[in-house]
Specification:
There is one protein chain. About 60% of the residues lie in helices and about 15% in strands. It is an alpha+beta fold. It folds into 3 domains: about 90 residues, Ribosomal Protein S5, domain 2; about 40 residues, no CATH class; about 140 residues, Butyryl-CoA Dehydrogenase, subunit A, domain 3 (Up-down Bundle), CATH 1.20.140. The strands form 2 sheets. Strands 1-2-4-3 form a 4-stranded mixed β-sheet, with helices on one face. Strand 1 and strand 2 form a beta hairpin. Helix 1 runs parallel beside helix 4 and helix 4 packs antiparallel against helix 8. The N and C termini lie close together (about 10 Å).
Length: about 290
């Protein structure tokens, strides 16, 4: 199975220390490019999150956002005595520089950041919980990528079927088109009432057939179609291989178009290029 690079996942879990929630967004990219948004208190998670991404995903621009709402209800408030002592000492130093300083208000000391705190969270337990939750989000993201990958494979196979039909039709039409072209030349010569050396005319016909021979291009188109089907069936990180095959298919379709000598072969080449372009757009989203 092939995997899409486009998906979204969101998981949330409420615990004793608060509520954790992860959002992961993934879009197509040539390489794996993680972008992490973590709360400052959980910045130590970055290494573990990147490792988990590398093990689970090979390509894509992935944005991972973690939010943490600490549970403060019911927690007893405590005074950070060290912080308060430092603050009072600094205030007394400043008061010594003032002739008539105002008395220090205890409520103002408590209002200073870091002085009045609730019970601190357990950082190790919180990190472990956040990583476990990220693993769940990553599983959900990969499931979404798998579902979309299956849809992409189906769309590509539909176009491969249409390409095979175009190639089969061209194989049947080439002898008929060559015969039509031969007759046109004979009719033109007859209209001009000109006499040509039959041997020379036959040489010109052989040369026309050689220049118009598209059997090799049709064979290579069929071979590439078979290889695309094989890669899709094999699955895994197939995006780069499929992109290369789209280039090869396009090359053969261009050559087929350059050899076109009949409106039907020209139209077939155009149809093939349209189908290849549609596939190429889908391939850009495959991991």
């Amino acid at each position: 199975m092939v995997h899409s690079m486009t998906a979204f996942a969101r998981v949330e879990r409420a615990g004793a220390q608060g509520t954790l929630s992860w959002e992961i967004r993934s879009v197509n990219h040539r390489y794996l490019e993680p972008h992490l948004r973590l709360p400052e208190a959980l910045r130590d998670l970055e290494g573990g999150v990147r490792d988990a991404l590398r093990q689970g995903i090979s390509r894509g621009k992935v944005e991972c956002t973690l939010r943490f709402a600490e549970e403060s209800a019911g927690k007893p408030l405590q005074v950070n005595r060290e912080r308060a002592t430092q603050l009072i000492a600094a205030a007394e130093t400043v008061a010594g520089l003032i002739s008539q300083p105002a008395p220090l208000n205890p409520l103002e000391v408590l209002a200073w950041p870091g002085v009045l705190v609730a019970d601190a969270v357990d950082p190790q337990a919180l990190n472990a919980e956040a990583l476990a939750l990220f693993a769940e989000a990553l599983v959900e993201l990969k499931a979404g990528r798998d579902r979309e990958g299956a849809d992409l494979a189906r769309l590509i196979n539909d176009r491969l079927d249409a390409m095979s039909g175009e190639v089969a039709t061209m194989r049947q039409l080439v002898p008929q088109m060559l015969a039509t072209q031969r007759q046109k030349i004979l009719d033109r010569v007859a209209d001009m009432r000109a006499e040509l050396d039959p041997q020379r005319l036959e040489q010109e016909m052989v040369l026309l057939a050689q220049k118009s021979d598209v059997a090799e291009e049709l064979d290579r188109l069929s071979t590439h179609v078979t290889e695309v089907r094989r890669v899709l069936k094999a699955g895994g990180a197939a995006g780069r291989r499929l992109d290369f095959l789209m280039q090869e298919l396009n090359r053969e379709a261009n050559t087929l178009g350059s050899k076109a000598f009949d409106p039907r072969s020209t139209q077939a080449a155009v149809n093939l290029k349209v189908l290849i372009e549609q596939m190429r757009e889908q391939v850009q989203n495959i991991e």
